[in-house]
């Protein structure tokens, strides 16, 4: 994941029209309800890339990653209060904090191969977020809190409502899924 410590936050009036939607609350990212908390935690940090890195690190340290601790109705606020969640909750909480500070942020999911990393989990869907700083989107991963190579983006949106990993009608069982990925 590329990084740029000099990337700046833009005032809402200076954002491109298609980016503005990512400053508003959404189903899982209730930034209006967490605005006071966001300002208390991050309001004194100088605006820019560094502040988003601090948000990313805070979420990484605040939430414990535990499979099975989140449901389809778990909001960022609930994850924050419970202190536990899955990668989706990590991404939602970071997005929520960013939006509460008028930093455009969007939920992103796909695959994260463990290129150059050792993982105790098999590759599966993974969620992270992107923040709009300067003139582009930057990738942040609060679950892992480090830069990775080879991300495969499947979807982007305001939150998981926009880009559901799976939509089924009736009973469904996944028997096997294998994904291989490498850098070109």
TrEMBL record:
It holds the Pfam family Transglut_core. Residues 79-144 form the Transglutaminase-like domain. SUPFAM superfamilies: Cysteine proteinases. This is Transglutaminase-like domain-containing protein. It comes from marine sediment metagenome. The lineage of its organism: unclassified sequences, metagenomes, ecological metagenomes.
